[in-house]
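Why does this matter for the project? Reviewers at the last site visit asked to see concrete outputs rather than summary tables. In response, this paragraph embeds two records directly. Each consists of the residue sequence and, immediately after it, the corresponding structure tokens. Nothing has been edited or filtered.
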Amino acid sequence: MSLGYTGLCKKVLEDEDIVIYTYGGENWNDEKSQSGDINLQDGILVINKHELNLPSTPYKAKRRTVYFPPVMEYVSSGAVAVEKECKNTFIIREDSPITIDYIGYMLLLHILMRYEETAKFPDSECFIQ
């Protein structure tokens, strides 16, 4: 069973300093969110490479280990940002430690997890939750 959230981002720029993604998403629990909104790509995510403590080579483990990047720490320090929220932005709970758009947060989490595995920023990333 799904919680009813989905997101998709696409890399539009990468240089030696920053990576920029456009993103969109849907919240199937909100009647204003429509099927196909994920393709609007009306939000913007920015990653400042030099502000992150990321490996330069992929992480290789004998067993699969789960790595959860400290996205909110990176947001607080300015290393990553939801520069523009997408149409279907929402905050999961007011008392949650996640104080940015939930769809943007989840995409940043997936981007940084993928970077940890490959030492490259993915061209695109998505999630369904």
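We now turn to the second protein, recorded in exactly the same manner.
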Amino acid sequence: MRKNKNRSSNKRRTYNKKFYKVFKKGNGFVRDKITPDPLDQLNECGVFGKITNKIGNEILKDPIHKVTRSIVGNMYDPKTEKPYKGSILYTITKVGVCLIISIFLFGLLNVVGNFR
């Protein structure tokens, strides 16, 4: 029988599962409730802005997730590292991506607003 040369892949992660459940719920709350809405500035544009905000958030949901996931995937290996690290990295990265989109949109709306 051949032995597996890569023994590090056979190691199991050890972590406190009860604490991780609480940690995961806390991070989920931050991601869902505290993360800024990237298209929030559109709400100031009346009914059309509110409709655009709702549609835009649905359209941007998947790209934001994919960008966040790809950034975190470069820093975190789920097979060998504890899930706390992946969860907190995902939360921080998602908040950062949403803030960048918000700042970009705010600047874009100010530039467009100056041409009136």
